[in-house]
Specification:
The chain is 45% helix and 16% strand. The chain is α/β, with parallel strands linked by helices and 233 residues long. The chain has one domain (5-230): Rossmann fold, CATH 3.40.50. Strands 3-2-1-4-5-6-7 form a 7-stranded parallel β-sheet, sandwiched between helices.
Amino acid sequence: MNEKTAVVTGAGSGVGAATARALARHGWRVALIGRQRAPLEKVAADALGSIICPCDVGDAGQVAEMGLQVLANFGAVALLVNAAGTNVPRRAIKELSHADYHAMINTNLHGAFYCAQTFLPQMRERGSGTIVNIVSDAGKIASPKAGPGYVVSKFGMAGLTQSINAEERGHGVRACAIFAGDINTPLLDKRPAPPDAAARAKMMQPEDIAECVLLAVQLPPHVIVEEILVRPA
């Protein structure tokens, strides 16, 4: 069994895609998780040895089925990267619809929880494993730019990361929360006023966050990087 096996959610674009490609370059086999097959196939062309698993991570049943498929292919998963995330244009508390609020919570927070709960048992059994949650600096402090639905989901992801470390560090499992500032990803297109090319050029790129993931997972197993706060210079 190849011990360098990873699951990356939100792998069709942005940070998820960049992370999957970076892991593949370092010899990891990656399960690419996302709602649409076509974007995953494009990433798979670069991430050699990967498998494609279309899945809505906000649906617990789909995550359970995805977990069975991944473990049937890999035997075990050493790394889970929860990179799936979404927001909406009408995000201010005065206009955020219940449907949009629940969609953000389902994808950003529930999805991370479902995936963690799916892959934790085999990590615990082996006594090793790393979970990296791509949070946001909106998980540190609220801002109108992010909106309350996104902020609530990201504070939840921060708490999930802390809970995994509190409960599982004694079993050899570690978790890292990456609190990132502005990143040039397709998620920016969902802002009420999407930034222009000049503004995006000054932001961090998805590959920068992928390097943070590599740092968290490549350090010795007895080292836990619990949080990484990274912003554009």
